[in-house]
Amino acid sequence: MPIIRVELLKGRTIEQKREFADVVTREAARILRCSPEVVDIVFHEVERHDWSSNGRLYSDK
Amino acid sequence: MPIIRVELLKGRTIEQKREFADVVTREAARILRCSPEVVDIVFHEVERHDWSSNGRLYSDK
Amino acid sequence: MPIIRVELLKGRTIEQKREFADVVTREAARILRCSPEVVDIVFHEVERHDWSSNGRLYSDK
Amino acid sequence: MPIIRVELLKGRTIEQKREFADVVTREAARILRCSPEVVDIVFHEVERHDWSSNGRLYSDK
Amino acid sequence: MPIIRVELLKGRTIEQKREFADVVTREAARILRCSPEVVDIVFHEVERHDWSSNGRLYSDK
Amino acid sequence: MPIIRVELLKGRTIEQKREFADVVTREAARILRCSPEVVDIVFHEVERHDWSSNGRLYSDK
Fold first, then answer.
1. Is residue D48 helix, strand or coil?
2. What is the pLDDT of residues A9-50, one digit of tens each?
3. Which of A14, A26, E15, F20 has the fewest C-beta atoms under 10 angstroms from its C-beta?
């Protein structure tokens, strides 16, 4: 049931995503009391010129 | 008015998206009683290494 | 696999959502060639004062 | 930087969300190598009649 | 065409949303060179116990 | 706190995004009464064959 969507700046490795998926699925299942089988995690990588904080694109920082 | 967002694993063809857009817009308009002109559908394709279920990335399955 | 998210103005009935879920799941499975079991649909109802088009809130139209 | 959005069926307690936020922020910061200060988590609770899988609303299951 | 989604903590007034919709639609149309008629803005209000930053729910701060 | 997500058809320049981020952050901070430092804006560019309105993909129009 839970769908977890992660927006993050481009540049993380597949190993990092693999570990994140593994650990966060296990913690989500434990804390939210559901089966890990129903936990979906989707990563959305964002380019630095597509994300701004404080009014400035990351690519300009 | 309705905005329909579809997250799906990469690999569908444009023909499939075209048919999906056509059919689902028609059904949405009929069931939700709105004009098809106000139905927007946006596809977000996701790489297999960016989606996990049951704690494992699809690219590892 | 496909996750379908539907944003729509408040006011649709459960019967409408039920029919939408039934029909769109079937069409998604057929067109995208996946099992209906892996199709998730999530409705997000939006108040009229939380949606604007052309610069005006629906509640002001 | 990472923004984590969690869609889940209504009914989780604030204690569960608190623990999830605490644990997942820590793991996200460790795995993705960022400061916990830049991790945002947003929960979107969904009513059982607003979520379907396999073509059926959870409220009908 | 552009769909602008704004997640924000609960507590803003309708007057603030009205002004935001008006101003941001105008600026979006000007900067992105599109008609204001095709700009949709959707607000998603989030409860303080449904948003955490730095691992803590806003309701606990 | 506010997270602003902008879905738009591919083809805008970085200059347009830069100006949008600058102007909309300033207006969001002024209207919603928050610091510009807590305003995040994320752009999601969408291919013309991944967006339909009125049942037709933009790439077919």
1. helix
2. 999 999 999 999 999 999 999 999 999 999 999 999 999 999
3. E15
End-to-end CA, chain E: 38
Residue F35 has pLDDT above 90, yes or no: yes
Cβ neighbours of E10 in D, within 8 Å: none
- Cβ-based burial of B39 (10 A; exposed 0-12, middle 13-18, buried ≥19): buried
Kind and range of the H or E run holding F3 = strand F3-9
Average confidence (pLDDT) over B13-34: 98
ipTM of the complex: 0.97
- Locate D31 and state its tokens: 């795995």
pLDDT over 90 at F49, yes or no? yes
Q: Are chains F and C in contact at 3+ CB pairs closer than 8 Å?
A: no
From A3, which residue of chain C is nearest by alpha-carbon distance? C3
List Cβ<8 Å contacts ≥24 apart for E9-16: E9/E45, E9/E46, E9/E47, E9/E48, E9/E51, E9/E58, E9/F1, E10/E45, E10/E46, E10/E47, E10/E48, E11/E45, E12/E43, E12/E45, E12/F32, E14/C49, E14/C57, E14/C59, E16/F31, E16/F32, E16/F33
Question: D interface toward A at CB cutoff 8 Å?
Answer: 1-9, 12, 16, 19-20, 23-24, 27-28, 31-33, 51
Q: Where are the domains of chain F?
A: 3-60
d(CA E41, CA E20): 9
Those residues whose C-beta lies under 8 Å from the C-beta of residue A6, and which sit 6 or more positions away, are: A20, A41, A42, A43, A44, D2, D3, D4, D5, D28
Q: Using a CB-CB distance cutoff of 8 angstroms, which residues of chain A are in contact with residue B46?
A: 42-44
Chains F and D touch (3+ CB pairs under 8 A): yes
CATH 3.30.429.10 fits E3-60, yes or no: yes
CATH superfamily of B3-50: Macrophage Migration Inhibitory Factor (3.30.429.10)
